[in-house]
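Exercise 7 asks you to align residues with tokens for two separate proteins.
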Amino acid sequence: MICAFFLFPPPVSPAESITAGDAEPQRLSAGGEAELRGIVAAGRLEMLHWPQFGGYQAEIGEFYRSGGYTLNWVRNSKPTPTARAVIKRLQAADNEGLLGQDYDSSLWPGRLLELELPGSPPSESRLLRFDLALTICAMRYILDLRLGRINPQPFRAAVDFEPDVHGPSDFLRKRIISARDLESAFSAVEPQFPSYRRLVHAVQLYAELAARDDGEQLPSEKLPVRPGDRYSGVPRLARLLRLLGDLPPRAVPGRELYNGPLVKAVKHFQRRHGLPPDGILGERTLRQLNTPLEQRLRQLRLTLERWRWLPHQFPRPPIRVNIPEFRLYAGDEPSQKVVVGMAFEHQTPVFSSRLTEVIFRPPWNVPASIQQSELVPEIEKDPAYLKKHDFEVIDGRGNVVSTGEISGAVLAQLRDGILYLRQRPGPKNSLGLVKFLMSNKHSVYIHGAPSKRGFWGSRRDLSHGCIRVMDPEALAAWVLRDRPEWTPERIRKAMEGTETLTVKLTEPIPVLIQYGTAAVAENGEVRFFDDIYSRDTAEGAAFEERSRTAAR
């Protein structure tokens, strides 16, 4: 994915560069320069696994123009140590959740061998093509690490990239080719989040596990398998759970009975996969157990891809919501449960924003769609519905028209959208007692709830798109932590008061609404979640399609 500008770390200072001897460029003859210019102008290099590089053409051209059309990866007709180190990194791209074939991972050993044949010095044409191939692959790699392999916009991921004067050509020349510490230089390109690094390690782990697993499917039964039942799948279940780390290596399960340490291991597996930890082998648990580990690896790769779409730096620690996990994270505070939008009708969108205000005891201005499709039918069935649920009818200026039973004429105007419904602040209010306001085109915000009932299920896609937080009081305390006058006691008093109170933040707090069906806890535990919005299906297809279309 190419944008007009790139947000890359600034170039290193001269003191950080490698020695001057290694930096001496290898110059081309007039004919060699013309050949190099011609290939760049064509945007195609046949020796590449994906020959077309038109999307990178301008940057590749700038890279060679800025260096006076000299070779960067070759000295004295041999690959430089830096070239070899970069090739090694490209060959290990799968460890970063990328696909090594995008960067010619399997082709580099043969290319290096061709340049080192005794008694047969490589031609200038071969050298410049080797140099160009490595430049193209390295640039593809750093762009994919920085921005992701696919464009998020077609998938309704409203993520903004801030412009910066340092583009990939500048970064490649000044941070990679001249790097003393190549690993640090590449790491600077990636998202600087501990959660991201933990996912990278999980990719490497699950690649190994997928290679070791025999892939046998557990048999299904007519009835759920409960602790103490006989189950023909016990040997495979024990093998799988031991491989995944849910069953300790020294635990010795029975051969036919499903009991003891195996039940405990299943409960641990269920917790890691967002299931109620009841130890029962029902349909949902067996489906998760029978999910191929290659599919788990795919989930990890897609989650890493989505991390790369996000802004990489924040002025303040962000609030982060992971939709499939039904969890909100605020800085170093313990995560808490959330309710998100319903899967089929009211999906919570993926976007980044800034939280600017906290509103205690907010009123709820009912959206027109909810008013007409849900509340008007309730009022038609029960004339006392408004009073029971603290609703009032208002006009376009916010003036109250009615707070009790309404006439047929008023009901008709509600049905036609001429009049509106507003729910008064209080414990019955659908927003709860706190609302966290963040600007976005989706009219989505974070708020409390009048009841905790919706938070106890393992699957919590129940809202109309907004995000209900289980403990809004704790979140308000964290959000207002730089306002010492807003003590926990004052926050509680504002929630229990009688007036609506709006508190503007001293500085906005970044908010990330993410979608990741995999996560890794601080203790290294790898967790997976259902693809409730089927985004893995769509984005996974695009992730794989990019490789197929790149060759055209």
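Second protein for Exercise 7:
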Amino acid sequence: MQVGDEIIEASLTTGGVPVVRSTTEAQKRRRAFAAAVDGAAWTFGIVLAVALRFEFMMGPRGWIATILLGLIAAGIHIGAGYYLALYRGRFTYGSFEEVRVLGLLVLVETILIALFIIPLGPLIGVPRGTSLLAAPIVLLLMFGVRYLARLTIERARKPGADAEPAIVVGAGYIADRLLHHVNTDPTATFRPVALLDDDPAKANLLLRGVPVIGRIDDVKEAAERTGATMLIVAIGQADSSLLRKLSDLGEKAGLRVAVTPTLADLQSGAESPSDVRDISIEDLIGRNPVDTNVEQIAGYITGKRVLVTGAGGSIGSELCRQLAKFGPSELIMLDRDETGLQMAQLGTAGHGLLDTNDVVLADIRDPELMNALFEERRPEVVFHAAALKHLPMLEQYPDEAWKTNVLGSLNVIQAARRVGVTTFVNISTDKAANPTSVLGHSKRVAEKLTAWAGEETSMRYLSVRFGNVIGSRGSMLPTFQRLIAEGKPITVTHPEATRYFMTIPEACQLVIQAGGIGRAGEVLILDMGEPVSILEVAKRMIAMSGKNIEIVFTGLRPGEKLHEELVGHRENLERPFHPKVSHARADVISPERLDKAGWEARMKANPRNNDTAIIEPINLEKAQHS
């Protein structure tokens, strides 16, 4: 709560609307008043201390001497206060900084007065211990006035009675920041009325005037007790499983569920604690905190020339945004999609002029161009995110998967080897584990080629494998959102289908981290948490929309798995460096052994779906009754 240097005076409010006066006039008046109050505290404190000492039985000489001493002490304090800028706006009125300086000033003044009174007190009729007796009274008065001022302002700035009553889940750092912001903002749209926390040590906590009244499971009882209509999740490390649980509890209690920004967003200053928003489907299936070792990352990124292929895509553009924070000497963004490059440049340079050499329009399928580009720009670190990724499309056009995902990857790998790239990170997919699709088989070959380059160079040429990223272009969630917005049925392949999900920022954080901890020829597999039911996601999205949307089951498409896998049958995992990154050794294939005909034959020989998957389209009514 800040009072001293603010233009708006709490005492000048009419109907809750602040009245603004001249900044200079208001400040001078407040500071002069604060000095007068502190001076009066010294005078009153000394007079009261002496009066109590003599039980108010003093002669005129004693009263006069005591009052004069009090006035002298007041004058010394005010003079010293102005010298220290205590009454010239250096400190916020009632802040801890001001109170600390004020306490030191009173202590020094007490000692100085004591040095004067102890030898001369009997001569002027004042007890030797006057200043020592008066000091606690003086401090109590000064601190008390400031506390009352803060209390008055805070009450004036609390949200109005029309603000939505809210229960806050969590009574830690984020909740404390949230309450601080909201309770000093009269325009806030909600007002916290209760806290819930599972920590037994916080069972009786009163945090900024808001009590902890139960545990997380007590949402319904708390709502009935307080009349709350909103549930705010203020837990910095809340993962998707906890958010799903709280969303369900809130829904059963008839509460609107919202979340605060993540701890990382708060610490970076990107958002403030009061930036509360309604819970989204992305929160429910993919919000997972990441512990990133910044020093490890900076060691191989900072000051280096970094190239990102596929920079215009969802993963590539986010990679570029995050890599730019680590200070590479040069960030080269490569893509064949000029619009995607413009978006990537907006995210890193703050403009989309496309007239600088940080953006490169090129196709990885052109080996001569890749060699010339790498020779000219000499990158030291490469993130290879360029790929064709839509499974059903590649089932129809497998030649394109071979040209881009296999040969295109080989072109980038070979160009990187020629110029001595020290770190090469190939962005792979969970579909490369026990592949059943053209996409999976093509990305599996790219993993093997990367592993071959790692063995040949002994440099960090490695692959990073993860599942679906939330919000990427053409992915499931944006498709569902568009269908719901248009009121069309949502198509789900199978009622039992599950997928792994991760947010784009989290995936990119871990990809960059993997580049710092991976070893030559490895496949690093990101921890995707628990697989999520596609049907459950669809139901939640429909419920959150408030619309009556039909769900239609279409059956698994060729090459599509019922349940995705992250780890191949022959892969053994270890986690030596990061709790969310597993390491496995990749199989190796050299460019000379590439055989498109053999590749196509292996795909035909392998199963095209999980053995348990139902290929035929499923009748909606039968599925809903089963």
